[in-house]
User: Fold this.
Amino acid sequence: MPAVTVEDTTTLARVPLPAPRTVRRRVRSVTTAPSGFEGEGFPVRRAFAGVDLRALDPFLHMDQMGEVEYAPGEPKGTSWHPHRGFETVTYLLDGTFEHADSHGGGGTISDGDTQWMTAGGGVLHIERPPEALVLSGGLFHGLQLWVNLPAAQKWVEPRYQDLRARQSVLLTSPDGGALLRVIAGDVGGHRGPGSTYTPMAMVHATVSPGASLDLPWRPDFNALVYVLSGSGSVGVDGAPVHTGQLAVLGPGDTVTVHGTRAGDRHAEARTPDLDVVVLGGLPIREPIAMYGPFVMNTRQEVLDAMTDASAGRLGTIPAARVAHGDVHGLSE
Ligand code: FE
Assistant:
């Protein structure tokens, strides 16, 4: 899992030690993500399955894509499809992914890069591995997170942010035992590059075996910890977690994460480090009407989105793309 790594964490800025009266958050639930297949067939873990949307708010959905070692000809993507009413955030840990949309956004991301697409009032897009990777095969591992937009911002202009791995703000814990990559939001006074409509924070943390992390976390944000790989414990109560599990935490000031010690019977031999994504945001607390690629406030708005999509009002496939013959996506 490369994403962004550093040789020596002691050269990085450190998050502060918790103040004396800090309230460490407790774990409310731990759920295990079921595995499935997305789009044309790449393997995913549905990170938020079975969790009440009110606990996730402002987040809606998250897929861990891979980790998978593709054989030549095997890598898969999606075909062109619409979205309205929310933002998609794609964070790539290994491999390469291409993205293009009907609003002129798009680009290629690889190891540690992030694409942040605000669908707003409506956009059409395609997400897939580049042709060279399809031919060669190779390692692929990423995350796609859906962030809701409040009613007042569901109709904003689509926007595309290309966040490079080197723009992530790198931090460490007071003893240097954890590497933190701040992708969005403010953590202990250090702000990540992602610009969000809904106030939120997203951090990818690698915790060394036996190390502990007390991540300062805005008390008005919710807190979710998803395990990408490895094993450890979360929260002041030390709830055990492993690969593919999501911990929802209660109120407090910090998010505590502890990596399983090497040699412990719960240690995962293949991945001694504990890799987690920590997410939090300001809950929107509005009704959610969600169907397929549309996230609105009422059922009628979702029906309108479906009508608008089939009438081409969410955008059309750019002419240059049609000329390249990639209307149906590479995987077909
Ligand atoms: Fe999509």
